[in-house]
Amino acid sequence: MTSLDRTGPQNGQDPTAIRIAGVSKTYGTYEVLKGIDVEVARGEVVVICGPSGSGKSTLIRTINRLEEINSGAITFDGQNIHAPMKTRDLNRLRSRIGFVFQSFNLFPHLSVVDNVSMSPIRVKGVSRDVAHDKALLLLDRVGLADKATAYPGQLSGGQQQRVAIARALAMEPPVMLFDEPTSALDPEMVGEVLAVMKSLAKDGMTMLCVTHEMGFARDVADRIWFIDAGEIIEKATPEEFFTHPRHPRAQRFLADLR
Ligand code: ADP
Ligand code: MG
């Protein structure tokens, strides 16, 4: 696998990658996020867990503005993500925050290499040749060098999700967000996707991962946020979280997983 150049904090750079301050969001009268205050340091890997319907997807979708917020602020590299801005600026901002969905979302009519090289060509104006060469390196990195000319429908779920990760990486985002990237996969394919995520983490990528894969959380996360009913009620290291969860609801959540 080729290595990406991802470095930690550099001289003079704000060590905080993402700041979420007092973020609330309602759907009608239903308050789905209730004053979220958290920060993610550069190079940090955060696993977000919590019961179904607790607001995990909503929270990470607000970070690249797939969801609007009602109050509070989210800054990324010092930039207010929810400030009014032109569509072009929003798209540019979004391209710097990679997002991997539960349901891959590849373009079925495009080959794997075209899926991976499309955004650099369209958004960044990279030439087709350069974008393809880069895509091939990324496909090699996720273990799919031999699938460049295949179409998504010819791949397994695990392979498609690895293509989706390569596609997000093609924009060289300093941050990657994952929303249950292995939940739609057959159990035998979960490991290959987690292995790619693990290698990214090892290279120093800043990552927020919503996942129920507690083995991954234990091995890879620097911090765990436990969210329940729209509030982050526990922030802990994996060691603290798995051995002494403080909040009764976190204790119950972990007991139910076993
Ligand atoms: P999680 O990812 O933790 O399962 P979500 O963030 O998807 O939770 O959803 C949190 C709550 O918000 C759920 O009760 C869900 O039904 C509700 N919700 C999510 N999206 C919408 C929407 N577009 N309109 C209304 N309610 C929504
Ligand atoms: Mg969700």
From TrEMBL:
<dbReference type="InterPro" id="IPR003439">
    <property type="entry name" value="ABC_transporter-like_ATP-bd"/>
</dbReference>
<keyword id="KW-0547">Nucleotide-binding</keyword>
<dbReference type="InterPro" id="IPR027417">
    <property type="entry name" value="P-loop_NTPase"/>
</dbReference>
<dbReference type="GO" id="GO:0016887">
    <property type="term" value="F:ATP hydrolysis activity"/>
</dbReference>
<dbReference type="InterPro" id="IPR017871">
    <property type="entry name" value="ABC_transporter-like_CS"/>
</dbReference>
<dbReference type="InterPro" id="IPR050086">
    <property type="entry name" value="MetN_ABC_transporter-like"/>
</dbReference>
<dbReference type="Pfam" id="PF00005">
    <property type="entry name" value="ABC_tran"/>
</dbReference>
<protein>
    <submittedName>
        <fullName>Amino acid ABC transporter ATP-binding protein</fullName>
    </submittedName>
</protein>
<dbReference type="GO" id="GO:0005524">
    <property type="term" value="F:ATP binding"/>
</dbReference>
<comment type="similarity">
    <text>Belongs to the ABC transporter superfamily.</text>
</comment>
<dbReference type="GO" id="GO:0015424">
    <property type="term" value="F:ABC-type amino acid transporter activity"/>
</dbReference>
<dbReference type="InterPro" id="IPR030679">
    <property type="entry name" value="ABC_ATPase_HisP-typ"/>
</dbReference>
<keyword id="KW-0813">Transport</keyword>
<feature type="domain" description="ABC transporter">
    <location>
        <begin position="18"/>
        <end position="254"/>
    </location>
</feature>
<dbReference type="InterPro" id="IPR003593">
    <property type="entry name" value="AAA+_ATPase"/>
</dbReference>
<keyword id="KW-0067">ATP-binding</keyword>
